[in-house]
């Protein structure tokens, strides 16, 4: 049996050595969702990173724990990674909209006739930074949404990369639940500012 | 914390494989880095860049997970409610950092399942300092302050590296580390300026940990072809020696001012402002990192048990139609 200085570990009665377990099966860790947060009221949602989760509700919980635990947050969106339409990446200082191939006229014409849906558009302004929400457009497909985004937001520069997400694919925090974001001020002990150690050091030095 | 300041297993002799890369793509890639732009996951990148970054970020992630164990063990026995809450918050942060880092590594093509398997099968390395035990609360404090401090030196450098997803993760991690460092310093100062018994306990813990701390940044760099290329590609941002010197410069005075001593008679700053010290025992380092340390078996066994105990939860939540897609950024 494995002996540890931590009695709780000794009590697990783990074997001293054991054969290596088989490699994990694919998707043992679940698919990924991408998470966006809003740091302050009335500011744009910004990409914060992925989480692995079996479904959107759980992804939201994981995202809340991972990305709002330590910093102010007033709202969160999650979306399955596979639901994001990604353009190619351009260089810093450029706009990928400039390189967008034009859709054939009949496709664009069909756009007007068919029933449109809302799409959310996110821009990456600089490589290494995070995608930021710029607004919504109405379109019949992600490709058409990208064209509409170019018309609506194409004057913003630079745009290194664009994410297009069908709005109904985003799970969004509810205004009615906004009190879920108000827990952080109680936990001063996890802020650097709560530790004022210099007084004690000075006193120690004086007492020498 | 815990960016194991040196990446273990950097190949030193083997070929760089650059002769097999497309010269035009390679030139564009290097030009992008030279003008200060970040690389994003879908960009073309040389095999060596992908391989080395994957290994580095993965080891960093493992170090966060394993590094939370020696401190986690003191949560139940922390002296007082305030310390217990803070210790818990810190451990939770470290595990959160691992999640961020696994995702960043995943954008390079290695799945999270494979990384976790490699950790519990002993194929992957993590920061060697966590193969040592924390016999007292003071040992846990030394980790919180000085191992974190070492990791921050390294992480602040790496946050200026060239890979976008790693930079994004490190920005967030560095922001959280500020609390860890202050908390660790506060805990050490509390003991070091306390009763004679507390002082003694802290001094003994520091004596136990100092040799490991001196190995934290890895052996002195030999400027091999690899090191040179990895620095040009902004994968490695500072040499091991530079990181170690910076750490000593920042923290030796802070250790001495609270009346603690360091167990190395040769430690001193020479006239050129360079720290001199006794060469750490690298043979012992090699032996421990290859599995023969006081806590290697326990760390892996605990991690394995956690995986096994959680398996039924993951099975219950599996969605049969789920498909794997690499995270985007």
UniProtKB/TrEMBL annotation, chain A:
Pfam families: PaaB
InterPro entries attached to this UniProt entry: PaaB, PaaB_sf
Protein name stated in the entry: Phenylacetic acid degradation b
Organism lineage string: Bacteria, Pseudomonadati, Bacteroidota, Cytophagia, Cytophagales
UniProtKB/TrEMBL annotation, chain B:
Gene Ontology biological-process annotations: phenylacetate catabolic process
Gene Ontology MF terms: phenylacetyl-CoA 1,2-epoxidase activity
Top EC group: oxidoreductase
Record NCBIfam families: PA_CoA_Oxy1 (TIGR02156)
Protein name: 1,2-phenylacetyl-CoA epoxidase subunit A
PANTHER family assigned to the protein according to its UniProt record, in alphabetical order: 1,2-PHENYLACETYL-COA EPOXIDASE, SUBUNIT A, PHENYLACETIC ACID DEGRADATION PROTEIN PAA
Gene it is expressed from: paaA
Pfam families: PaaA_PaaC
Source organism: Hymenobacter lapidiphilus
């Amino acid at each position: 049996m494995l002996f540890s200085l931590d009695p709780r570990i000794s009590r697990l009665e783990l074997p001293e050595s054991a054969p290596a377990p088989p490699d994990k099966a694919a998707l043992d860790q679940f698919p990924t969702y991408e998470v966006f947060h809003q740091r302050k009221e009335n500011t744009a949602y910004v990409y914060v990173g992925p989480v692995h989760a079996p479904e959107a509700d759980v992804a939201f919980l994981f995202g809340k724990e991972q990305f709002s635990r330590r910093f102010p947050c007033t709202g969160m969106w999650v979306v399955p990674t596979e639901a994001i339409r990604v353009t190619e990446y351009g260089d810093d200082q450029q706009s990928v909209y400039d390189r967008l191939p034009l859709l054939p006229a009949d496709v664009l014409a069909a756009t007007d006739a068919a029933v449109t849906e809302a799409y959310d558009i996110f821009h990456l302004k600089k490589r290494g930074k995070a995608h930021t929400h710029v607004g919504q457009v109405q379109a019949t497909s992600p490709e058409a949404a990208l064209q509409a985004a170019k018309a609506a937001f194409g004057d913003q520069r630079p745009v290194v990369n664009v994410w297009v997400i069908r709005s109904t694919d985003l799970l969004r925090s509810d205004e009615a639940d906004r009190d879920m974001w108000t827990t952080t001020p109680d936990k001063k002990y996890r802020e650097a500012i709560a530790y004022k150690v210099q007084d004690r050091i000075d006193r120690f030095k004086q007492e020498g | 914390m815990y960016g194991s300041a040196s990446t273990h297993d950097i190949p030193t002799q083997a070929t760089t494989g650059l002769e097999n890369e497309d010269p035009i793509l390679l030139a564009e890639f290097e030009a992008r880095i030279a003008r200060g732009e970040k690389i994003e996951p879908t960009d073309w990148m040389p095999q060596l860049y992908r391989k080395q970054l994957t290994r580095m970020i993965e080891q960093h992630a493992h170090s966060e997970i394993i590094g939370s164990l020696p401190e986690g063990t003191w949560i139940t026995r922390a002296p007082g409610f305030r310390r217990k809450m803070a210790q818990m918050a810190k451990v939770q942060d470290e595990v959160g950092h691992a999640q961020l880092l696994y995702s960043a590594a995943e954008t390079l093509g290695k799945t999270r399942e494979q990384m976790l398997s490699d950790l519990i099968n002993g194929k992957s390395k993590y920061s060697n300092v966590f193969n040592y035990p924390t016999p007292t609360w003071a040992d846990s404090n030394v980790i919180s302050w000085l191992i974190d401090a070492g990791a921050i030196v390294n992480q602040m450098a790496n946050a200026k590296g060239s890979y976008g997803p790693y930079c994004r993760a490190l920005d967030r991690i560095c922001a959280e580390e500020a609390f860890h460092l202050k908390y660790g310093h506060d805990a050490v100062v509390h003991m070091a300026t306390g009763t004679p018994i507390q002082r003694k306990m802290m001094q003994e813990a520091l004596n136990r940990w100092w040799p490991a701390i001196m190995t934290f940044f890895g052996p002195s760099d030999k400027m091999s072809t690899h090191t040179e290329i990895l620095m040009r590609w902004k994968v490695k941002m500072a040499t091991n020696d530079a990181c170690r010197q910076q750490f000593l410069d920042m923290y030796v005075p802070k250790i001495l001012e609270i009346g603690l001593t360091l167990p190395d008679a040769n430690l001193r700053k020479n006239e050129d402002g360079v720290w001199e010290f006794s060469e750490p025992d690298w043979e012992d380092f090699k032996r421990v990192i290859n599995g023969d340390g006081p806590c290697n078996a326990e760390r892996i066994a605990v991690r394995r048990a956690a995986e096994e105990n959680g398996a039924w939860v993951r099975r219950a939540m599996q969605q049969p139609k789920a498909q794997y897609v690499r995270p985007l950024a």
